[in-house]
Queue: 3 jobs
Job 1
Amino acid sequence: MKLSTKLYLGFFIIPALILITLSIYSISSFQRIDRQVITIYDDRIVPLQQIKQVSDSYAIIIMDSVNKAHAGLLSHKQALQDINKALQIIQDNWRAYQATKLTFQEQVFVAEAEELFLIANRKIEELKQVLKTEDSQENSGLDNFYGALYKDIDPITAKLQQLTDLQIQVAKDEREKASLVYAEIQLVFKLLLIVAVLIASPVGFTFSRSVLTAFKQTLNAVITSSTEMAVAVEEQERIAAQQASAVNQTTITMEELNVSSKVAAEQAETAARGAKEVLNLATEGTKTVARSLNEMLNLKQKMIAMQTQIFQLSGQTNQIGNISSLVSDLANQTNMLALNAAIEAVRAGSHGQGFAIIATEIRKLADQSQKSATKINSLVENIQKAINSTEIVTADGMKTIEENANISQDTADTFGGVRSKIDEVTASAQSISLNAQQQAIAIQQVVEAMKILNTAATETASGISQIKIGTQNLQEVSLALKTLV
């Protein structure tokens, strides 16, 4: 058995079991005494007060009220109030008493008392009727109760006195039971004390001898282990010195790597900023191309509107040409009519001179109309040529605009592709920068850890030296203790 187990059993388990047993027995005994005390108070002392209240209400309050009312010292109304109050006190206290724990003999006395209550209460009810109906100056009805009521109430007080005596007797019995429990507890504790004195000495001797033997064995093992530990500590001291040197070299290398990682992080951050600037320029170029494309689309819409207007103007010019042809035809017909009119005027002789003048004027007007129509046709032809040239130029312009729009769209698409690639480059540069920063932080943490490890290695070497000294002291103390045991 282990020494710790023996000590645990000797100084904790066995005493604890004894204390627990004594505690359980003591608590149980005290609970028994407490129950006896509770019974004495709740079921005996309190009922004594309740029985006394009932007895006093019958024998003192009611009888005193009847006597005073008969003697004229108390009005019938006041006597009636006192009797009702006494009956209420009797009812409340009797119910409370019946709610307590009753013995068999008490139950017999209670049944007999309740029979007496019925007889007395009937008389009291008759008394109450008399007090209600008669005037305070008339006592003829009270003469029947004066003195005669004692015959009904005295048996009640006697029976209640029996209950009172019974309460005192039961309380005495309960007290004797509590005394027996107390005597039993004293006897048990005396026996336990004798057993403890008789058993503790040999058990203690056996236990101490067993512990001492185990302690000697443990002490020898400690001496042997301390010797072996001293050898191991010397070896650990040498290894710790080597580890401290290696950790110091590693710390120097990590510091150099930390400087390099910081430079790489700064360069990666610079590349990321340059990529962001190129991305911003590509974005602005895309916006500019988009604006140019919108302007070309607007110009295309205007050219389409202009072409529509030119088509309408061409149609109107054709209509003007048609009207001019009609005017020319009308002038020719007018000229023919004027010629016919001149011929008829010649035939008419002197009577047709006025008509001849009119025909001459009409012919002049027809000639002018013919000339105007010719000029209009010439102008219409020139306008038509200009319109045709404009249509050709407009069509070429539309074609050029569409080509420029396609070129702008291609340029926008190209900028979009460039922007996408720059986004990827920027993201890569940012990722590289972030990784470089994280790497620099990690390396810095490693450097700090290596410094801590270097310090710990130094402290470990110092601690091993202290352990070596402590081991030597332990070996010396163990040898000295062995000589004492």
Job 2
Amino acid sequence: MLQGNTGKNSVTGFDFTGNMTLLVDDIVKTHPFFKHIKVKNILIAMSPSNGNRNGVVAKLRPMLFEGGSRTKTVRRIEYAAPEVMINGTNILYIVYFHLPRFLNHGDQKTKLVTVLHELHHISPLFNGDIRRYSGKNYAHGNSRKDFDSLVSIYTDEYIHATAHPELSIFLKFKYNELKRKYGAIYGDMIRIPRSKNVSFQKPMGNI
């Protein structure tokens, strides 16, 4: 049974953001690898996908640059990262799930692996940057196979340790199945502004 008594669902639809946030919170509280994550500083968002079954199903958007810096310089131009505040809370990460593609991607465990995969990308310093490995493949390390294997192990450990397995039950459903059950699927959607050019341009002197 889906968690109908959490206040996240109603006759008007299924709250994807609310339910996914509850699941992420349980993952953070259950598995020690993710204990550095502060859920209040993360926004779970929906992003529409096209009808193609192939493609990105989820992605993590860090809100700051390398090392948690608010600014970075590219070709002598300084850029500032956009700031996102929700109810007075500074958002350091946005996790986008592309619907309907994410819900149609594999079985319940496959989707759960995807959730932990995105959380794994969060820096252990929780500073608004991603977890960075040495080398040019800094996002996944030298072996994508090893990365995926590790995330799969973490997923199994979470499944066996959680006291609230009901929180991931909604991942059993395909998009249309969940929509038929609740009438609609809704959640937060946000478009992040581009980084702003904050370079100080010195005034030209008189010729």
Job 3
Amino acid sequence: MVAVSVLQYLLQVVSLVIVGHLGTLPLSSVAIATSLTNVTGFSLLSGMVGGLETLCGQAYGAKEYKKLGTYTYSAIITLLILCPPICLLWFFMDRFLVFAGQDEAIAHQARDFSMWLIPGLFGAAILKPTTRFLQTQSVIFPMLLSSSLVLCFHVVACWTLVYKLGIGYVGAAMAISFSTWLNVLLLACYVRLSPVCERTRGDLTGEAFRGVKQFFRLGISSALMVCLKWWSMELLILLSGLLSNPKLETSVLSICLSISTLHFTVPYGLGAAVRF
């Protein structure tokens, strides 16, 4: 799980590295956008999906294998329901950033970047529960393989979109969205076709929709813990945009925090392995 966590986080790091060669304005804009989308979107999804640890762990321990699939569907439905309000917030990101005192050029580019992350948000709403579904069963190698393939694809896609096609910093957001959905498709194919998941995958039924309320109740508590920890770091990048030279300050801080967060994914992966 350490390798899986690191590989998945490297998508964001690779994007920052590639955009960094475009200059301080694109890098600072992407850094601000990444921070705000993490704070308002991806951290919420990561926190909510923690509810599956309780539900899937109990079901797997009690040998009620079909419930794993049902609970996972409930999680996916819940996270997909949360996505539209998050997208609405991202749509007005530039106004929020300008109101908060951020540089206007950074705010407008950050909003453009966020718009192209919206497909990736919906992909993450499916990917995160699917990952927990496999984690509960200690099915790690398929996630390691898919994450490795996706990272290789992402490096090529990001470089092609940003430089070869001349799309610029927005191409990095497109690459993240493409890569997220590729990971979803690879894992979905494995879950559907592999005999390992035959007894647990189940089908989408009315029970999954009825379980949304239960999952939401558990997910909120988990989300609060994850979000408060995540927000404390991302807030630093947002505050750096208020300094005298926001383009330079934000760029430098985003690089430092990205590297430090990469280190944190190692104990996070070890913790996930211990839980399951």
